[in-house]
Amino acid sequence: MKQFFLLIVFSCCCSFLFAQYSVRLIVTDAATQKGADIYLAGDFNNWNPGDYNFKMKIFGATRKVYVFKDVAAGKFAFKFTRGSWEKVESTAKGEDLENHEVEVSSDTSLSFSIAGWKDDFPDKPKPNTASKQVQVLDTAFFMSQLNRYRKVWVYLPVNYNLLKSKSFPVIYMHDGQNLFNEQTAFSGEWGVDECLDTLQKQLNKDCIVIGIDNGGDKRMNEYNPYDDKKFGKGEGDLYLDFITQTLKPFIDNRFRTQKDRQHTFIAGSSMGGLISMYAIKRYPDVFGAAGVFSPSFWI
């Protein structure tokens, strides 16, 4: 009898732990573009702004709805778009919005009103915010392993040209568009150059940073070491071969670098975090450490 009671309790606990819920999101009103298709872009689809699988359906005369089924308890984030990031939702004045977040602990239904869309408002030219320590190394560096070309950036420490006998550690970073310059960044630059300038002044710590632009529609494949039914063939191994066998030797010959693994690092966010984690497993003799930010381990 005791064993039977424990089995019942265990079953109830498991049912609670693995409960699945439905989440219904409704757009009750869109200030403009009222008849347009609306999509969901979030951490559940790698923030793809035009994912047909997350296109909202017509619900009544003017409303749109999307229903998530079998959602585990937890939190997810998203934004509404009309198929691209140039057509993402905004405030009524065209200002950027924070991500919507939904905390799931039961069946949930939420309604939203979209005050405006970014393309309703003319873009103001983005400023060039890269510091003077940043330069474009090559606008079309050849990636022989992938038969593609890619823009590559380099950040040199403030004292690089002052201390001619000094060699520096190197960090290889993905999503180069986002690292230094507001003009090229998606949703705001990371400020890597300003951060390192400050560290040099305050702590006398300095390093070279090599920023490799992502490949746009190739990003998911290049940063993924695994084949995926949805996204296709993983090219992560070839991408890392490019960094270790082509780009790193070029950088070591061109600049005063500390070439050993103790002074060679790799870092990225999201899919860039995933490939950075994979890199120190695949090339432990090349990379001494990795910066792994918000990694896409869901892949």
The structural class is alpha/beta
Strand order of the largest sheet: 10-11-13-12-14-15
Tally of DSSP helical segments = 5
Helix content: 10-25%
Quaternary structure type: single chain
Q: Which range does the strand content fall in?
A: 25-35%
* Major beta sheet summary: 6 strands, mixed
Overall radius of gyration: 23 Å
Number of E-type strands: 15
What coarse outline follows from CA principal-axis ratios?
elongated
Taken in chain order, the helices and strands follow as HEEEEEEEEEEEEHEHHEHE
Spans of at least 5 consecutive residues whose pLDDT stays below 50 are 4-17
Distance between the termini: 44 Å
Mean pLDDT across all amino acids: 91
Structure description:
By secondary structure, the protein is an alpha/beta fold. It has five helices and 15 strands. The strands form four sheets. The protein has a six-stranded mixed sheet with strand order 10-11-13-12-14-15, with helices on one face. It has a four-stranded mixed sheet with strand order 3-4-1-8, with no helix packed on it. Helix 2 links the parallel strand 12 and strand 13. Residues 4-17 have low confidence and may be disordered.
